[in-house]
Specification:
The complex is a heterodimer. By secondary structure, chain A is an alpha+beta fold. Chain A contains 22 helices and 29 strands. In chain A, the strands form 7 sheets. Chain A has a 7-stranded mixed beta sheet, with helices on both faces. A 6-stranded mixed beta sheet of chain A has the order 8-16-15-14-9-29, sandwiched between helices. In chain A, strands 17-18-26-27-28 form a 5-stranded mixed beta sheet, with helices on both faces. By secondary structure, chain B is of the alpha+beta class. In chain B, helix 6 crosses helix 9 and helix 8 packs across helix 9. The radius of gyration of chain B is 18 Å and the shape is globular. The interface between A and B is large, with 76 and 68 residues.
Chain lengths: 800, 232
């Protein structure tokens, strides 16, 4: 279908501010009389506060207040606390100080005497599962979202083979199975069984999560750093202890989140609490070092997988076990996503998934780009290569024979998908990369240098439904798209707003996007996370625009007689269907709507929309024609974002250093909405994937529970020099079947496929060597080349 | 911009620039002389700064992160009024001996386009030009730039708002994603093209490599640098 706006590049309205320095992030705001806050953070991985003596600090001139855990709302364990009297990781905030200067606040922190009782701790999930092993919390060692906090110890017998590298597999916390696993393995010609370890890592958002808050006329104003806008409001209001209507949340720009700023997070409420206590605005600047502790991290895996392949490469059975390091709190469900991802990317005929989410005294975990899907892609994809080698199959062909299509099945319940074009993505990538020719370079050696070629796929679910869209046509004829989705940096707030303009036939120059501040009457939208914005927000903006269109036609009928059906829209005017003659401009129709009242002006709203959207409409009522609707469009099944990466590396066998020579990323993201941004996402996701695969990790000292890397130079996100100067991209472009414009998201798998493809290429260069862990760093490569044992035990975590 | 920038600080309308001093004490002595030479009193100047909203109270912010550094920062530290040339204008500001340029720019001169991503020379978000050379302002002492021309992201576009070719190219190639590292990337690119107007991609890549981008927009930034070189 030919669109006027969709699929075309545009100038996102916020991009110029980013290149001029005018874009204002949370820490760029100031307020009259502003105080500064610093956090007193735990020096140990687990402890109990016996006493706090802040008298000396409070006596200091300019120190205004001390805020402790006893003064802020508390939430049932294992939810993330705001402040705590039982710190569960090194660097956890115990209390906060507000002072007239930040220097003074930092000085005051040093004057506060906190009597801490050290408690047992663990930084290795398997240690905690061992009989008599330490628990991360006094009340248990296993928990997750929808998994109650409990204590689990496995029988010592489960650990007998651990030293030889076999993952202990005691009773899982959760499991599912479909198909006949035994029959699947019996039918297999090749069975591959391996353990794997994937390290946790910081999100490394360039903007630390600084925050400023003040109170005015009973409302709390917060300038925060978040991926999302409306979605943050209820959660943050809850952390502050107020009703959502009493919170004004401003987040026009966000300096990166990658999952760690998708929802409200507890520390962002600290300035609000201190501002309430002191009666003055409070700024909390978070440092890079603090970001490494309270800024969330990706869960780590210790896992085991057994896969059966038939002679044609078809995967007949998968048996997967994931021990998931969840940090000390509620964490995130990466271990579940790992199972779902394998089920959809490889469509196994039978599969069992087992998992357990174990608590450790390391940073709280949260979703990070492709949570679970990307770790498992890194573990599994090199094994697909191994099977292809043993079966004498082409590595693209073996992926193609297993790849999902529109009849694909998903997850434990083997439910349907709304579209899947992974085969087409593999084909497109093979063509762009020139796979047939390029694979001849595989393992070609010149001196110390050897070429490695890799291909890999990845997945994330890419769409929600049930959120509200809100548009407004004002009497000046402008279309205002009210977006509460947030501004993560993908420009998808803008790209999906163009859907409303497309539906109403608007010239883009007559469209205003309203966003960035909850007082601007923003609807209830999903957060900007989970690869979902493109799918979800295109639907919500579509239904809102369709509502506006219907109202325009009805106003046409009121104006010129007949029924709404007799009218159409064209060139921002209502026209007669019969002769295309103009009845009235959108501007006049908007003025008429304001006078008409009722549903036209927003005086009446649909019953099924969220209270937040109702409040937004109430604020706009009477100012023009309101289009507002909840997305109730059909959606049967999961909407998969799928992607494929093709890569070539040249690896130096003497030094273990490698250079990525070429990368092609291909997305199955349905109809392409904004090509230039998609290109930037595919390339940028690949960069982040390379870091995930070969350099980034959190390391905790097992003796002290303290972090070994609290700086960018230690945790190593990729720089310009670690990645190719140019990377290629493409998209399948086939529309999704559950989105009115065929759009679906893509943000996460484009990282996972690049990470996994790189690992496949490194393995290829080394003759098919499987490393059983990520990141794969140069000394591991050197050891592998020399045939030396690695410096770590097989399932060891916290490997530097 | 603020009134203070357009108001002449001395009858000639031109602030005497100070050569790089031999030692720290010399800095302060020269500052005192130069401050006295102006007809704007210190009190008037401070009032002007406050009225302009361009600065907050001196030393409100802690620089260089961890709490352990706070003691060293405050004890015995005395602010001195200095003149800085920032974005072609003379800015007069109270500066601590150990104060970083990023700190002065962001928190005293209100130039918040310069970002702090790490505050320890790792990420490049704070990059500014000093005499047309890119520097990490988080790790440059403010006193050390007296007598030099400092250019921040706010000084890259023309005074009438016309974007610099680098900025235009960054927009056209959709360089920024989240945008937090972008001011530093723009400044580094401008500095590169001043020194080397026609870089190869490889030269540009090396020149830009001190600026991290977690969104991974390196490819698009490089395309923008090359476009700017072509179109400048």
């Amino acid at each position: 279908m030919a669109y006027k706006l969709i699929g075309k590049d545009f100038l996102p309205p916020d991009v110029v501010a980013k290149v001029t320095g005018e874009a204002r992030y949370a820490e760029d705001f100031r307020a009259e009389g502003m105080l500064f806050c610093k956090l007193l953070r735990s020096p140990m991985p687990h402890g109990r506060v016996r006493n706090i003596d802040a008298s000396e600090a409070l006596a200091m001139d300019g120190v205004v207040a001390v805020l402790t855990a006893d003064e802020v709302p508390s939430f049932p364990p294992p939810q993330n606390p705001i402040l705590t009297n039982e710190p569960l990781y090194a660097g956890e905030p115990i209390l906060a100080v507000a002072a007239t200067s930040e220097t003074l606040a930092a000085d005051a922190i040093e004057k506060i005497k906190v009597d801490l009782e050290p408690l047992p701790f663990t930084v290795d999930p398997l240690d905690s599962l061992y009989p008599g092993g330490p628990n991360a919390r006094l009340t248990g060692n296993v928990a997750n979202v929808r998994l109650d906090l409990q204590t689990v110890k496995w029988d010592a017998a489960a650990f007998v083979e651990a030293d030889r590298g076999k993952l202990p597999m005691g009773p899982p916390a959760e499991e599912w199975q479909f198909g006949d696993l035994d029959a699947g393995f019996a039918a297999a010609k090749v069975v591959i069984e391996e353990n794997f370890v994937t390290a946790g890592l910081s999100h490394h958002s360039m903007e630390p999560r600084s925050c400023m808050a003040y109170w005015q006329n009973g409302k709390c104003f917060v300038h925060g750093s978040s991926q999302s806008q409306s979605y943050v409001v209820p959660g943050l209001a809850n952390y502050i202890g107020i009703e959502p209507k009493d919170l004004v949340y401003i987040a026009e720009f966000c300096g990166g989140g990658f999952g760690s700023k998708g929802s409200a997070y507890p520390v962002m409420s600290i300035p609000a609490h201190l501002a309430k206590k002191t009666g003055r605005p409070v700024m909390m600047r978070i440092t890079r070092e603090e970001e490494y502790s309270l800024g969330l991290a990706r869960p780590a895996f210790q896992g085991w997988v057994r896969m059966g392949f038939k002679a044609d490469g078809r995967i007949s059975a998968v048996d997967l076990y994931v021990v998931h390091d969840n940090g000390p709190n509620m964490g995130f469900w990466d271990f579940r996503n790992a199972g779902s991802a394998v089920s959809i990317v490889f469509q196994p005929e039978a599969m069992r998934w087992r998992g357990i989410s174990v608590l450790t005294n390391t940073p709280p975990r949260g979703p990070q780009r492709g949570p679970g899907e990307n770790q498992i892609a890194m573990a599994i994809e090199p094994l697909i290569d191994k099977a292809a080698h043993e079966l004498g199959l082409d590595r693209v062909a073996i992926r193609r024979v297993n790849a999902p299509d529109n009849d694909a099945k998903y997850g434990a319940k083997q439910g349907p998908v709304t579209s899947a074009y992974l085969k087409e993505a593999l084909d497109r990538g093979a063509e762009r990369f020139n796979w047939e020719e390029r694979k001849k370079l595989s393992r070609r050696r010149t001196g110390n240098k050897v070429i490695g070629i890799g291909v890999a796929s990845a997945y994330h679910s890419a769409g929600f439904s049930g959120f509200d869209g809100l548009v407004r046509i004002t009497p000046d004829g402008k279309l205002h798209v009210h977006s509460g989705v947030g501004n993560l940096g993908t420009y998808s707030y803008g790209a999906t707003s163009r859907v409303a303009a497309e539906v109403l036939g608007y010239d883009w120059s007559n469209v205003v996007i309203v966003r960035g501040d909850s007082s601007k009457h923003l609807p209830w939208n999903i957060g900007q996370f989970g690869s979902n914005t493109s799918f979800t927000m295109s639907r919500t903006n579509y239904v809102a625009a369709m509502d506006a269109k219907q109202k325009l036609l009805e106003i046409g009928a009121l104006e010129a007689g007949g029924a709404a059906d007799d009218y159409d829209i064209q060139n921002e005017a209502v026209v007669r269907k019969s002769d295309r003659s103009t009845v009235m401009s959108f501007a006049d129709a908007a003025a008429r709507a304001a006078k008409l009242g009722g549903k036209f002006s927003g005086a009446e709203v649909p019953d099924n929309i969220n209270p937040l959207t109702k409040a937004a409409v109430a604020g706009l009522a009477g100012s023009g024609l309101i289009g507002v609707a909840k997305d109730t469009l059909p959606k049967d099944g999961v909407t998969p974002a799928l992607s494929v990466g093709y890569i070539q590396v040249e690896l130096d066998l003497e030094t273990g250093k490698f250079v990525i020579q070429d990368y092609v990323g291909v997305a199955d993201c349905g109809t392409v909405v904004h090509p230039q941004s998609l290109a930037n996402q595919i390339r940028g996701g690949a960069v982040m994937g390379f870091g995930l695969a070969v350099s980034e990790r959190l390391v905790y000292d097992p003796k002290l529970g303290l972090p070994a890397n609290v700086g960018l130079y230690q945790a190593k996100p990729p720089s310009y020099l670690d990645v190719p100067a140019e990377m290629a991209w493409d998209a399948v472009g086939k529309p999704d079947l559950a989105n009115p414009l065929g759009i679906k998201g893509i943000g996460e798998p484009i990282q996972g496929c690049a990470a996994a493809a790189l690992l496949c290429a490194i393995s290829d260069a080394l003759g098919g060597h499987y490393f059983n862990r990520t990141p794969v760093v140069t000394d591991m490569i050197v050891n592998a080349v020399a045939g030396r044992p690695q410096s770590y035990r097989p399932l060891q975590v916290n490997v530097q | 911009m603020s009134d203070i920038e357009s108001r002449p600080l001395e009858p000639t309308g031109r602030e005497p620039m100070v050569a790089e001093p031999a030692d720290g004490e010399g800095v302060f002595a020269r500052v005192a002389v130069n401050a006295a030479a102006t007809r704007t009193t210190r009190r008037e100047f401070i009032k002007g700064v406050i009225a302009s909203g361009a600065a907050v109270a001196a030393a409100s912010y802690l620089f260089r992160g961890p709490a352990g550094t706070a003691q060293a920062q405050t004890r015995g530290a005395v602010e001195r009024l200095v003149s800085l040339r920032v974005n072609g204008k003379v800015r007069r500001v109270d500066v601590l001996p150990q104060e970083t340029l990023a700190h002065t720019l962001r928190y005293k001169l209100g130039l918040t386009g310069t970002k702090l991503g790490c505050d320890r020379s790792e990420c490049g978000a704070c990059t500014v030009m000093i005499d047309d050379v890119a520097y990490y302002s988080c790790s440059t002492l403010t006193h050390s730039v007296r007598g030099h021309e400092v250019t921040t992201i706010e000084g890259i576009a023309a005074p009438d708002g016309t974007l610099h070719p680098v900025q235009r190219a960054f927009v056209e190639e959709l360089g920024p994603q989240c945008g937090f590292c972008t001011p530093g990337q723009v400044v580094t690119a401008v500095a590169l093209l001043k020194a080397n107007p026609s870089p190869t991609v490889e030269e540009a890549r090396v020149a830009m490599s001190g600026n991290l981008c977690r969104c991974g927009a390196y490819d698009h930034y490089l395309r923008a640098v090359m476009r700017a070189a072509r179109e400048a």
